[in-house]
Specification:
The structure holds 2 protein chains of 2 kinds.
Chain A (H helix, E strand, L loop, with lengths): L6 H9 L10 E5 L8 E4 L3 H10 L5 E5 L7 H6 L5 H10 L2 H4 L4 E4 L9 H8 L2 E4 L7 H6 L6 H4 L5 H27 L1 H21 L10 H23 L4 H18 L20 E5 L9 H5 L5 E4 L4 E4 L10 H5 L5 E5 L4 E2 L1 H7 L17
Parallel strand pairs in A: 2-3, 4-5
Antiparallel strand pairs in A: 1-3, 6-9, 7-8, 9-10
Chain B lengths: L6 H5 L5 H8 L4 H13 L6 E5 L5 H8 L3 E6 L2 H8 L10 E6 L5 H4 L5 E7 L7 H14 E12 L5 H22 L9 H7 L3 E8 L4 E7 L17 E2 L3
Classes of the chains: A alpha/beta, B alpha/beta.
Chain lengths: 374, 241
């Protein structure tokens, strides 16, 4: 389906992005794949599946659509809704081993917070390798012989996706603000309220990632965008000749209220920061150097370039700690359990516990301590 | 019985699952555990029982209380941690062990004819249709000849007015659960037919609670455990663009 033809569906999924949208699970043929065609694993989120089909148009591949409960791979993996068990189940139920001659699947890199690569290899005999972080890099990845280059491992947050997030998170607040404005002071002021809110929310998302919008300092930036929104709203009131005390008051207050609500966890609506509500957001990733064997599995899955391989010492190094978003993918994938979370109070949470509890920026808020398999 | 869609909220915090599921079921979930455990163990001493999707372990422990040697498998490590923390009921002569394992991975761990009974409570409703078909075929091979399958799960009522009433009751809860956990469950359609389709015989169904909950029982035929999983029967393919 063309981008234009799919626009209504894409828009619907974007507007209701916080709800699951389930695509059918199974093995999808892209082009006319043969028994040697690559197998690309993804979740069953409708928007992702449509975008994958478009990105891979002209290629021949199998798309193994596993059950991520209709949630995008990044959120589903972090939240514990998409794990290696789901990938294994999809491989088994589609009889993948009977459909292809090779023994390799390509996993989406952003599933590394919840999908343990080694568990898939142990259970299925297939080699599992990480693909790029973003689906639009898949054609280059395939053309290169299924090899990822470092820049494809890094998360990007282009303006179109920032706009999508602004729409997805802003429209319910906009609808409430405009509805209240209309009801309280009439249609003219409601237009001012609407413009003020849209300008404030859109401006905020467009500022990412140029302006840091995490931590307590974010409130100052929020205030700036609320003022800008209020000014634009006031301009509309003036043009509409709808000025009045109630109109000006509601148009001025609306962007402040909306951004205050959004600001409770603005970070969590982006792939750029750790959620302000997640316990993991208060932790630091710590490397236990004596355990590190230089396997560099962590480097392959870090979407922010935090970790680098020191080839001379055959050890990994935490090079950009401030860029870390606490997704815990590095901790989950390390074969030596050489990475862990350390909290301000000195508490440490080891890899086994993080795998068990999905303690990360999206997943569990607290840790349940339990034993291993009996 | 309230809607089991709320289960997703409960599972998002395993520690509150037991309390919540009792509340959802009006305190009757233990009746279900007991009824399934009785069906799984009657006529067999020290029955070997596999609990698929055991969650916090209520059903596996009920089986162990009746002398079974139960194995509870679940893909959710948080739920298993809660199960492990529970003690066997006083005087129980059986045993229980827990494994983090997906339902489609049963064949990796257990040999054919490993169990006298396979039980599942509120876990089939979390599987895709393909996975249900696959798991039914695999568990048939893991049961002994004459072994028993018992599935207890949310289903759609058979009468139209009951379906409508159930939907009215279910959707507000399901919507809230969606907002809180971004996922949900769905009633299992045509469960007895699916069980028959996987090669089980003597399939029976008992409906409870406004016809919206079913306990399905079936037996393996004489050849159970000897047949390989039927090739291609559960494969799912979506055609290309």
């Amino acid at each position: 389906m063309s981008r234009l033809g799919a626009f209504p569906q894409d828009l619907g999924d974007t507007l209701l992005r916080m709800l699951p949208h389930r695509a059918p699970t199974g093995l999808i043929a892209i082009g006319r794949p043969g028994r040697d065609a690559p197998v690309l694993v993804t979740g069953n989120y409708t928007l992702t599946v449509r975008r994958l089909r478009r990105a891979l148009a002209g290629h021949e591949a199998w798309l193994l659509c596993a059950d991520s409960r209709g949630i995008n791979v990044w959120c589903a993996s972090g939240g514990g809704h998409f794990t290696h068990h789901d990938v294994i189940a999809a491989m088994r139920t589609t009889r993948l081993s009977e459909r292809v001659d090779h023994r390799e699947v390509v996993l989406p890199q952003l599933s590394a917070t919840g999908v343990e690569r080694r568990r898939i290899e142990e259970a299925t005999g297939f080699r599992a390798r990480w693909g790029p972080a973003r689906l639009e890099d898949l054609p280059d990845f395939l053309a290169r012989g299924r090899r990822v280059v470092q820049r494809e491992r890094l998360m990007r947050f282009p303006w179109r996706e920032r706009l999508e997030m602004a729409v997805a998170w802003g429209w319910p607040l906009l609808a409430i603000a405009v509805g209240l404005g209309w009801g309280l002071v009439g249609p003219g002021p409601a237009v001012g309220v609407g413009v003020a809110v849209v300008a404030a929310v859109a401006g905020l998302y467009m500022a990412v990632p140029r302006v840091r919008l995490a931590g307590r300092g974010r409130w100052a930036v929020f205030a700036v965008f609320a003022v800008l929104g209020a000014l634009l709203g006031a301009l509309v009131l003036w043009l509409w000749q709808a000025a009045g005390v109630a109109a000006i008051a509601s148009t001025t207050a609306a962007p402040f209220v909306v951004l205050a609500l959004l600001g409770l966890d603005f970070e969590g609506t982006t792939p750029w920061y750790a959620s302000a509500l997640a316990e993991a957001g208060r932790a630091e990733v710590e490397l236990v150097e004596e355990r590190c064997t230089g396997a560099a599995a962590c480097v392959q899955v870090c979407p922010r370039g935090v970790l680098v391989m020191d080839g001379r010492r055959r050890k990994v190094r935490i090079a950009e700690p401030d860029a870390c978003i606490r997704c815990a993918a590095c901790i989950v994938q390390c074969p030596e359990d050489a990475l862990r979370f350390r909290f301000d109070d000195g508490r440490m949470v080891e890899a086994t516990e993080i795998r068990r509890t999905r303690l990360n920026m999206l997943g569990k808020r607290t840790v349940v301590v339990g034993g291993g398999d009996d | 019985m309230g809607s089991f869609a709320w289960m997703r909220v409960l599972e998002s915090s395993a520690e509150r699952y037991d309390r919540g599921i009792r509340w959802l079921s009006g305190g009757r979930i233990d009746e279900v555990y007991r009824a399934v455990a009785v069906a799984a163990t009657t006529g067999r001493t020290a029955a070997r029982v596999l609990d698929v999707g055991c969650g916090t372990g209520g059903l596996a422990l009920a089986c162990a209380a009746r002398g079974a040697h139960a194995v509870g498998i679940d893909r959710n490590a948080g739920m298993l941690a809660v199960a492990r923390a529970k003690a066997l009921p006083a005087g129980a002569s059986g045993s229980v062990r827990w494994l983090e394992l997906g339902a489609a991975e049963i064949e990796d761990v257990f040999e054919p004819r490993s169990f006298d009974a396979v039980v599942a409570c509120l876990s089939f409703s979390e599987m895709t249709d393909d996975e249900q078909a696959y798991v039914l075929e695999v568990v048939r091979t893991r049961l002994v000849a004459g072994g028993r399958l018992i599935i207890a799960d949310e289903v759609r009522p058979r009468q139209a007015w009951r379906r409508a009433w159930h939907a009215v009751r279910r959707w507000p809860v399901a919507g809230l659960a969606y907002l809180m956990t971004q996922t949900g469950t769905r009633p299992v359609d045509g469960l007895p037919d699916r069980v028959r389709g996987a090669g089980f015989v003597e399939v029976g169904e008992e409906r409870r609670w406004g016809d919206a909950f079913a306990i399905v029982q079936a037996l393996t035929g004489g050849e159970a455990g000897s047949a390989a999983v039927r090739s291609g029967a559960a494969g799912a393919e979506v055609e290309g663009p």
